[in-house]
Amino acid sequence: MTLIRILFYFLSLIAIASALYAAASKNLVRSIFVFFITLFSLAGLYVLALADFVAVTQVVIYVGGILVLILFAFMLSGKETLNVLQKQEGRFLSINKLPALLLAGLFFIVLINVVFKADADNLQWVKESISLKNEITPNVVMIDNIGVNLMTRYLLPFEAISVLLLMALVGAAHLSRKEGKV
Amino acid sequence: MISLTDFLIVSVALFCIGLYMIVTKRNAIQILIGIELILNAAILNLVAFGKYDKANNSGQIFALFAIVLAAATTAVALAIILNVYRRYKTIDPNDINKLRD
Predict the structure, then answer these.
(1) CATH number for the domain whose boundaries are A1-88
(2) Listed GO molecular functions (chain B) (predicted)?
(3) Which end of chain B is more exposed for a tag (fewer CB within 10 A), N or C?
(4) Which residues contact B15 (CB under 8 A, 6 or more apart)?
(5) What is this model's ipTM?
(6) Which residues of B are less than 8 Å from A54 in CB distance?
(7) How much is the pTM?
(8) Does A119 lie at the interface with B, CB-CB under 8 angstroms?
């Protein structure tokens, strides 16, 4: 039981517990703020998977961008939204949520079975990559390699996603403008 | 080190919580949060497998693409939610039954 394993279990416990709380709470604002905690602990898990650049991007884009956007959209939509939320009936385990709970539980059982049957640590290509020293180790810096790969090998998906992001932002600005003169 | 199976189990748990949120919530913003949870579960898988690809970094780079896609999705979805709220005065997806009037 090394320190890194303890850290992994701690972070994943925080992530799953806060996600469960976000799913269970009826208060929208509390749900959003607990989702913050989930995203931060997921960034910690990415660091433990030796993907520090993805972790930083997660913090910058998700926590800095998406959650602030959600909070703004929530606050712009007025206090009638809050009133709608307060009169939601039912607890976490009420009878009309039973089918959803059943669906999620069965999905969980099936996926856990798939994970254990697939036995990901003994896959062929994973073993080959370990034997070929193609595995990322904690003492190498991957950021410059990511930049070079992004501009050479993955240039086409990079351009496609930049065009898509531009289209999505223009479309969002067009959709959320004030009604009125056409 | 941490094995791949541990990462996969955490990601399965997050996926199922997100699925539960999407099915049960009666509020479009919380459904959006459920979608983000599912996307994060997928990103965790990509990152965990990307550890075994040092030369090409395919896992990490597609995790970055997935994060950018999530940002675009959220922007458009929030714009749509604001428009729906303006027309129906509610964001409960059960009450919305027309695409246009």
Answers:
(1) 1.20.120.1200
(2) NADH dehydrogenase (quinone) (non-electrogenic) activity
(3) C
(4) A107, A111, B37, B38, B41, B42
(5) 0.90
(6) 43, 47, 60, 63-64, 67
(7) 0.88
(8) yes
Tokens linked to A124: 């062929």
Beta carbons within 8 Å of A50's beta carbon, 6+ residues apart: A136, A137, A138, A142, B51
Name the residue ranges covered by the structural domains of chain A: 1-88
Q: Which of B42, B36, B41 is nearest to B21 (CA)?
A: B36
Q: Write the pLDDT tens digit of every residue in B54-77.
A: 888 889 999 999 999 998 988 899
Instruction: Tell me what the mean pLDDT of segment A93-105 comes to.
Output: 83
What whole-number distance in Å separates Cα of residue B1 and Cα of residue B7?
12
In chain A, which residue's Cα lies nearest the Cα of B37?
A: A19
Angle between helices B28-50 and B4-24 (to 10 degrees): 170
Query: What are the structural domain ranges in chain B?
Result: 4-88
